[in-house]
Write a structure and sequence with these properties.
single chain, mainly alpha, globular
């Protein structure tokens, strides 16, 4: 009996670790305006709840080589963004396949589970161009809305 209660409790905590976004119809808080403005200028401002704090720290530490681009910020801006990301980060750590913090949301177990039914041809198609382009299917991703009501798979 205690083991089942513990398992149920841990499962509930894991769900809460994602910020309970799905309880609100797939809506995430996207952090502060500095994060949304600076990071959202180049790509969708990804929900902070999708990566653990160690991941956000490493991403912010390496902005000068951010996935092939120099996304460097003024130190005060970077510190403000990092503080917000860490405050809202996923509580459960997750390591990358080769160790260290996972740096891509698309590499998380949660992402793979949520998108396991998406056909490979869709990811590679001209309308999507890869798993990191959330707004290709999640039409209101810029507003933090990843709910199924606003989900439209390109044809």
């Amino acid at each position: 009996m205690k083991r089942n209660t513990l398992t149920l409790g841990l499962g509930l905590l894991a769900w809460l670790a994602l910020g309970a976004a799905w309880a609100d119809g797939g809506r995430f808080d996207l952090g502060g305006p500095v994060y949304r403005d600076e990071c959202g200028a180049c790509h969708v401002a990804y929900p902070p709840q999708l990566l653990p704090a160690a991941s956000w720290r490493e991403l912010m530490r390496t902005l000068d080589r951010h996935f092939g681009a120099d996304a460097g910020l003024e130190p005060q801006q970077a510190a403000a963004i990092l503080d917000g990301l860490v405050a809202q980060a996923r509580r459960r750590p997750e390591a990358a396949p080769r160790g260290g913090p996972v740096l891509r949301i698309t590499q998380t177990a949660w992402f793979r589970h949520e998108h396991d039914e998406v056909p490979a041809r869709l990811w590679k198609g001209p309308a999507v161009k890869g798993a990191a382009h959330c707004a290709a299917c999640h039409r209101r991703a810029e507003a933090g809305d990843y709910g199924e009501r606003t989900l439209r798979l390109p044809r």
